[in-house]
Amino acid sequence: MNAETATQRHTALYEEHQKLGASFTDFGGWQMPLKYDSELAEHHAVRKTAGLFDLSHMGEVWVTGPEAGKFLDFALVGKLSAVAVGKAKYSLICNEDGGIIDDLISYRRAEDRFLVVPNAGNADAVFEALSERAKGFDVEVENASAATSLAAVQGPNSVEILLQLVPAAEAATVTDMKYYAADEVTFTISGAPVKLLLARTGYTGEDGFEIYVPNEHAVSLWTALLEAGKAHGLVPAGLACRDSLRLEAGMPLYGNELSLEVSPYDAGLGPVVALKKEGEFVGRSALEAQKEKGSQRKLVGLKGLGRRAGRSHYPVLKDGRQVGEVTSGQPSPTLGYPVALAYVDVEFTEPGTQLDVDLRGKPEPFEVVSLPFYKRGN
């Protein structure tokens, strides 16, 4: 089980991170590795070879029962009943006002069984919301977060690394797995076969996999992956480079780009909201009204034209007047220039628009660009 104190939580891999010399940071109440040596080196490893992340702070909520799909259609904004077994879907859970409680991925493991994965700081809130919304549906909602660990192998060499631990008879399950799909795969760890859930998903903009593992096997899996990855450039990677990677890929972070005060339409997530699906769902009326009204501000990508980076909460200016605010920003290790995500008044959101970011009293030039900043293969 994950150790927990009154002030912080530790994943089952905490001592392994200590052995590797990790620097730690608080994230959603968890003590998580920020970096092991150089966050820049870890970032480049994920882009060029592979990185290994501990994501055990994420939540795992199982929804099971004859009405599982129907229930999730009601509880989330997407149409989860249309997801095929073995596939996954990105969605949102909103409140009645249309505010975003969390963004999450749901995996359909059987006709009557889904795994819903919320973000670390929102795992309890999502479980509570799903439990409350389940009343009247023939489903069971189980919070398996405390008993489950999650490791992610991300980068161009991910497939080759996993094939070192998977029997030849199951190699095609790994190599042929599509993006946003999942399946059970046998891993050989500590000399013994263990069936684990493998998903071809991630948060870095690279090809990669996420592996759900019971806590009792987490350390053995982690050490086996590190050993298998030695010849393929695999390095342990922390949250610092995970943030720079997801920013380059234009992926939102809850608490920065997403919150209860943000509409999915402002965040560019309108396509995630399935207003055409039949039946009521939580937040439908508010979301319909938001779409009809239109957004006053929208999330955009900003490319720095100078050398200085914008940071969260820095004002975005047009001719000296504030027209927005940065939500995330830093220098891009891959691209070599500063990048930022920001909410900007809609009239200034066209790509090519010239704006400034107020860097502590000094305006720095930026340009609105299409997202993502970085796309694998380009």
From TrEMBL:
Biological processes annotated in GO: glycine decarboxylation via glycine cleavage system; methylation
Where along the chain is substrate bound?
E210
List keywords of the entry alphabetically: Aminotransferase, Methyltransferase, Transferase
Tell me the ranges covered by the GCVT N-terminal domain, including all copies: 13-277
Regarding protein family, the annotation reads:
Belongs to the GcvT family.
What this chain does, per the record?
The glycine cleavage system catalyzes the degradation of glycine.
Record protein name field = Aminomethyltransferase
